[in-house]
Amino acid sequence: MDKAPRDRDDEGRARSARPRDGLGRPLPYGVPGVERQPEGVVRSPDQTLKEAQRLLDAGKPFHAHEVFEDAWKSGPEPERELWRGLAQLAVGLTHAARGNVMGGKRLLLRGAEHIEGFGDPHGVDVSGLAAWARDLASRLRGPVDARAEAPRLTLDG
User: Fold this and answer.
1) 16-66, pLDDT tens digit by residue?
2) Residues near 29 by Cβ (< 8 Å), separated by ≥ 6?
3) I need a labelling partner for 123 at 20 to 30 A (CA). Which of 14, 39, 71, 78 fits?
4) Can you tell me the distance from the alpha carbon of 41 to that of 143, in angstroms, rounded to the nearest whole number?
5) What does 88-146 look like in DSSP terms, one character per residue?
6) Rounded to 5 degrees, what are φ and ψ at 119?
7) Is 78 within 8 Å of 97 (Cβ atoms)?
8) Interhelix angle 101-115/126-139, nearest 10 degrees
């Protein structure tokens, strides 16, 4: 069987070069997609929250998750679970918007568990986000509108 070579990044790691839609789903090669978030960007907590909120408001929770993932991987150890939990909330919304009810519920609840106990670092509305995630998980029956369901990340937002 003749297999096409896998897409690789400059360092030889497997990376799909297929375009993606606003919810991160792969599209056929040659079809215009949504521009991806650059990986490995180190941002301040405020920059992370602003960029992620912009993407959530635009109905792009998959892309917001990538912003949170950068913070999770580059942030100080005591805050990594916060950023990981926020990434899980964004992925939960992504799955919910794609119609993956069980995956959406699971990640929304897991994300809520990860962020609880953090207080409100950097102005993150931890209790409000945990309540939002549990509410959305309880209402999931099919695909949701990611833009309409986007949470407010901060207390002042």
Assistant:
1) 678 888 788 787 888 887 877 777 788 999 999 999 999 999 999 999 999
2) 17, 18, 19
3) 39
4) 31
5) HHHHHHHHHHHT-HHHHHHHHHHHHHHHTTS--GGGB-HHHHHHHHHHHHHH-SS---H
6) 70, -140
7) no
8) 160
